[in-house]
Structures are given as structure tokens and as C-alpha cells.
Specification:
With 325 residues, the chain is mainly β. Helices cover 10% and strands 35% of the residues.
Length: 325
């Protein structure tokens, strides 16, 4: 899984309604059952006023979900409706935390830096919680030391002693999850046509090449098929699956991605298009027409508009897409 430093915009926390995974980069979130092993999850859009938050957090002990944005804290009953209170400015002592979390008794914990954690009763006043000492609790130490999650302290079956696994339907929503489920991303030049000059003279060719262009959405159809779209006018899970694929290609290679930005490519359903080309062939020469494709595992997902013509059966070395960072 990609660590938080690579994907800072993913937030996982508990609420009284269940567990939540927020993807601000996709403007949506999943509401999960109490354990991540279940396939059932509700997909919601983020309310416009709650988008682009820097921190999202809540707990089973708090009525509200909290969003920190521009050094202000907003409170909402859920993330797909407007805040139920006016935004409050954070106290200076509560600004710049690396992670925020709600704890029992209505207080809040703030990880200020690695190994440094404090607790306050109110984020807008900075009033210390003298009773709670979060740094002394096991759950707090695990929050500070964990590379995987700020939520699940122990996912072990008490009967078998084995660790639980995330259901694939939930795993696919997490950064790097598609790489674990479908296989690492790849980018290749695929040979799509060969053109021969059988004459003894130079020939300039103007030729249309029929190509498949766009996204093979049927290859992503199994992503999110257990999600329940809970708002009627919200994009269907298939649209979110496409967004997850874009995000997967943008991840570094060590997390199953390519480090490439493919957002400007055509992501509509794949269809055949004719691409016009012009090139000159020497006598008895062969031209090889290549198309750049992106995929996961062994299956091509995105058929790019990028083509190149070479005089060799060796594919081009150029990567025609910009880096993601």
C-alpha cells in the first residue's frame, strides 16, 4: 500500500455510523461496516463546502465529523451534507498538526510531530485536556508509529489467530489497491500496423490508421460493484473506477503505478478512430506503426492517442505522457 507521504489526501476514521475512507482527490468517500472484511459499502459525494479539506476525522464517541481546512475547523453530521455549525478558527497551538483524531470524553488528539502528541478539549481555544495523556496510551503510540493506518489497531481473528484482510471491494478504493488486486501498472508501445514500400522509389504515404482509442471500461467493471451509490445524482461507481485507475497510473512504481499523468487522455469508452499519418518510405522499406497503451496486470486499460512510426520492429523508447509529479 502507498504510505501517507505519497498520498496525503486519504483519510480513514471511525464514526457512529461506521468507518469512513475519504478520497478528497475524487470528491467522494466510502461508509463501511464496522469491519473492513465486508464487501458492503455506501459511496457518497463530498459536499462542496467540505471538499479540499486537509484533515478529516471523527470517532464513535463524537456526534460530529470534523474537517480542518484553511486553519478552520468545520463540523458536520455527515460529509455529504452542509456543515451544521459555523466554521471556527483553530487556536494557534492547534495549527499545523500532522494528524488529528477524536478521543473519548469529547477531546481531540493532535500529532504535532513524530513522537509528539497532545490532547485538547477544544480546537478553537486550545484548552489542554489535563486528564487525557494520549502519549501514554497504546492506541496513541500505534497511531504515531503505524505506516499503514490510523484506525485499526488489531485486525486479528480471535479464533484462528490469523490477520483479517480487507475485502477487494474496499481495498480497491485505497491508494495502490488496484495494483494489489489487478497487478502493477504497465505502459507499452503496441504494434498496430505495418506499411510496406515494395517499389524501388521513395514513397510519401498519407494514410489513415484505424485505432482503438479510449478506456476499456469493461476491464474495470468489477471495481466497486459491491458499492451502493447512495445519492441519486452522484456519478455511478464506474466513473469512480476510472478515476481510481488514473490515480493508480500516477503512483510511483514501487506502489504499483507508473508515475505518469494520464488525465488529459480520452477516458471515454474505447472506440475505433482513424488517425491520419504522413511519412516517407525508402525503396523496399517497412514502416511500423505503434500505439501507446496503459494497463494493469496483463490487461490493457487505456488506449492512448499517442502513435509513432518507426523503421524498426523495436518499439520506441520515448514515454509520451508527462510525469505525475
Amino acid at each position: 500500500m502507498a504510505p501517507p507521504k505519497e498520498v496525503p489526501n486519504v483519510h480513514i476514521f471511525s464514526t457512529r455510523a461506521g468507518d469512513v475512507i475519504v478520497r478528497p482527490d475524487l470528491n467522494c468517500y466510502l461508509l463501511l461496516p464496522l469491519l473492513p472484511t465486508s464487501p458492503s459499502a455506501h459511496l457518497y459525494p463530498l459536499h462542496p463546502s467540505l471538499r479540499a479539506g486537509e484533515h478529516y476525522f471523527g470517532s464513535r464517541w463524537h456526534d460530529s465529523i470534523y474537517v480542518i481546512k484553511d486553519n478552520k475547523v468545520l463540523e458536520a453530521q455527515d460529509l455529504h451534507t452542509a456543515p451544521n455549525k459555523e466554521a471556527r478558527r483553530l487556536h494557534p497551538s492547534c495549527c499545523g498538526g500532522q494528524h488529528y483524531f477524536a478521543i473519548t470524553g469529547g477531546s481531540f488528539g493532535i500529532i504535532l510531530s513524530p513522537g509528539s502528541v497532545t490532547a485538547v478539549r477544544d480546537l478553537s481555544t486550545g484548552e489542554p485536556d489535563s486528564v487525557t495523556e494520549p502519549g501514554q496510551h497504546r492506541w496513541s503510540k500505534e497511531k504515531m508509529e503505524s505506516h499503514q493506518s490510523y484506525l485499526y489497531w488489531q485486525l486479528r481473528d480471535n479464533f484462528s489467530g490469523e490477520l483479517f484482510s480487507f475485502h477487494p471491494g474496499i481495498l480497491s478504493f485505497l491508494p495502490g489497491g488496484l495494483g494489489l488486486i489487478k497487478g502493477s501498472a504497465f505502459g507499452i508501445w503496441e504494434l498496430v500496423d505495418t506499411i510496406h514500400n515494395h517499389s524501388d522509389a521513395h514513397v510519401t504515404k498519407r494514410q489513415g490508421i484505424l485505432l482503438k482509442v479510449g478506456c476499456a471500461k469493461e476491464k474495470l467493471a468489477d471495481i466497486g460493484n459491491e458499492w451502493i451509490a447512495s445519492v441519486s445524482d452522484f456519478p455511478d461507481p464506474g466513473s469512480i473506477a476510472v478515476a481510481l485507475a488514473k490515480a493508480q497510473f500516477a503512483l510511483p512504481t514501487q506502489y504499483g503505478g507508473l508515475g505518469l499523468n494520464a488525465k488529459e487522455e480520452k477516458w471515454e469508452g474505447a472506440r475505433e478512430e482513424e488517425m491520419g499519418t504522413q511519412f516517407t518510405l525508402q525503396p523496399n522499406q517497412v514502416a511500423y506503426v505503434w500505439q501507446y497503451q496503459l494497463g494493469l496486470g496483463t490487461e490493457a486499460i487505456l488506449f492512448c492517442r499517442k502513435i509513432q512510426v518507426t523503421n524498426s520492429r523495436e518499439p520506441p523508447c520515448e514515454i509520451p505522457l508527462p510525469p505525475s509529479s
